[in-house]
Amino acid sequence: MMYKTTGDVMQGFSRDHTVPYLLESNDLAMGCAMSEATAPLLMSFGRVTTEPDQLAVMLYLSAGGCAEEHAREYELTGIAAMRNLEADQAQDAIIRQKRALALAAERYFSAWKYHNSFYGKPVEGECPAFDDDLGEFIYLAGLLSGLQALNAEIQSTSAIGVPKNIGSTVARATQCLDNEKWWGAPMALRATVWAMIPGALPEGEDPFVRLKIADKQGEAEGVRISHVFHAIAAQNKGDRERLRSIIRSHAESIEQTPSNEKWRFVDAMATQMIVAISDRLWMENAGHRTPMGQLGNFWDDEKEPVETMDLEGLL
Prior knowledge:
Elements: H1 2-23, H2 28-44, H3 53-83, H4 87-119, H5 133-156, H6 166-173, H7 185-196, H8 207-221, H9 225-237, H10 240-256, H11 264-286, H12 311-314
C-alpha cells in the first residue's frame, strides 16, 4: 500500500511539475541525463500502481534523443576518419553509429508504444480527449517518437520491428492537433511525411510550401521545431541548397526572436539538431564542425575584406 501511494505521488509530481519545469529549461544535457537515470525508477512504479504510460512517452523520447546524439558524434568521427584516409577508424565509427541508432530506435519505438497505450492507436477520424495543454503536447511528442523510430531503424540497418506504415499513421494523427496552437509543428510533421514517403502526397499539395509556412509560424512563436522537419525533408531529397537556406533561417531567427519561455526545451532541441546538420556539412567539406558563433555561415561563403593597419606608418 505504501509503494502504491509513493508511486502515485511520484507519477503525479513528475507530470505536473518535473516535466513542465524541464520544458522551461534549455539544458538538453541535463534533460538527457535525467531521462536515462530516472526512467527505470519511475517506470518500476507500474508494478505497484497504474502504468505511467503518458510520462513514459516523454522519458523514452528524451532517452532516444540521448542515443541519437551519440550516433551523431560517431558519424562526425567517421567522416573525419574518411577524410584522413583512416579506413579502420572510419569503419569502427560507422559500426558504433549504427549501434547507437539501433538503441535510439528501440527507445523511440517504446515511446510510440506507450503513446498508443495511453491515447489509443491513432485511427482516422477519431481523436483522444485531452485533459490539458501538456497532455496535448505529449500526444505531439508521441507522434514525433514514432517517426523518429522509423528513421533511426532505417539508418541503423537493423530490424527493431517498427511498422513501415508508421509515417502515414503519424500524418493522419497530426490532424487531432491545433496547428496554430502548436507553432505549425503538426502541419510540418505531416508535410515531412508527404515529402519522404512515395505516394503519400495528396493531390494539389506541395510539402515544401507547407513547410515554409510552418517555419514562419515557428519563428514567430519562438519554437522552431518545424525547421528540423523542413531540414529532414530537404536531406531526403538531396537538396543541399535548401538545407543551407534552412540553417541560415534558423540562425537568423534565434538572433531575432527569443525562445518561448514555456517551451525553451523544445526550441533548444531544434537548435541542437540544426547545429548537428550544420556540423555534418562542415565536417564533410572543411574537416571540422561549425565554428563557434558561425551557425548559418558556411566554409565557402565569400569572406568580407579584412581591414589592415599600416604598422610602418605608426612606427
